[in-house]
Amino acid sequence: MTESTTGGGLPPASTADNVVLVHGAYADGSSWAGVIALLQQAGMSVTAVQNPLTSLDDDAAATTRALDLQGGPTVLVGHSWAGTVISQTGGHPRVSALVYVAARAPEAGEDYGALAATFPPAPASAGLVHSPDGFAQLSEEAFLSDFANGVDPGQAKVLYAVQGRISGTLFASRTTEAAWRTKPCWYAISRGDRTTDPDLERFLAKRMNATQIELASGHLSLVTHPREIADLILEAAGRLTRQH
Questions:
Q1: Cα dihedral sign for 186, 190, 191, 196?
Q2: d(CA 152, CA 150)
């Protein structure tokens, strides 16, 4: 596995003992299981949000409830769609740093779909299946081949079984805040991503002046590279100094 790093993000305001993890679309909180175990071994207090995936407001409310329960400085982490959620909620006074994992990072009020359309379309999007009740999910083929590429096939099928269904209007949501403008940020880019174009991830990381790493992974680096993602979070928490 090859990893590269570039600096840029500001250091966290204080050492954090708490982490709140926010999952993306087509997932639930269990996708963080490997990362959670490593963070707990490092002495961190960890909370994984369960997003309803019904609207940005609903997901933001779930994340804010988790942040309200934290006892001190907290690193807020979002994967994929949850980058939108943490951008909206990361201004919370307990948030000391933001970590984006192959994640969206819209500007306040930005049409993220229009921005993403300026980059090559991601293969996973072609596998979206809509149900009559207005919700959507990825087909099994798209989930296993594109969303979970690089994940052990047996584990990928388990993740497919617990995939979160999304409201058909979820991705049209626009934020009113861009917390990455005021909080120190870290970003993990997935070099083999088939759900979000890697160059879009690089653009977002550069725009927010984040400290970056690149992983030789698909979209689910939190599953395939839990050690690297946990270390990035610990770095954002002020508990780990990266060796350059």
A1: negative
A2: 7
- What token pair was written down for 164? 């979160």
Report the number of distinct structural domains present in the chain.
1
144 to each of 18, 65, 160, how far by Cα in Å? 32, 32, 8
Contacts of residue 65, Cβ cutoff 8 Å, sequence gap at least 6:
none
pLDDT tens per residue, range 64-79: 999 999 999 999 999 9
CATH number of the domain residue 220 falls in: 3.40.50.1820
Domain that holds residue 192: 3-236
- Side chain identity at 193, as an amino acid letter? D
Q: Residue 49 forms beta bridges with which residues?
A: 22
In a domain, 220, yes or no: yes
Residues in contact with 172: Cβ distance below 8 Å, sequence separation at least 6, in sequence order? 113
Q: What is the pLDDT of residue 240?
A: 83
SS3 assignment, position 48 = strand
Give me the sign of the Cα torsion angle 61, 51, 205, 45: positive
For residues 116 and 200, the answer to whether their CB atoms sit within 8 Å is yes
pTM over 0.90: yes
In a domain, 242, yes or no: no
pLDDT recorded at residue 241: 78
- Using CA atoms, how far apart are residues 184 and 186, in angstroms rounded to an integer? 7
Side chain identity at residue 21, one-letter code: L
- Confirm whether 33 is domain-assigned: yes
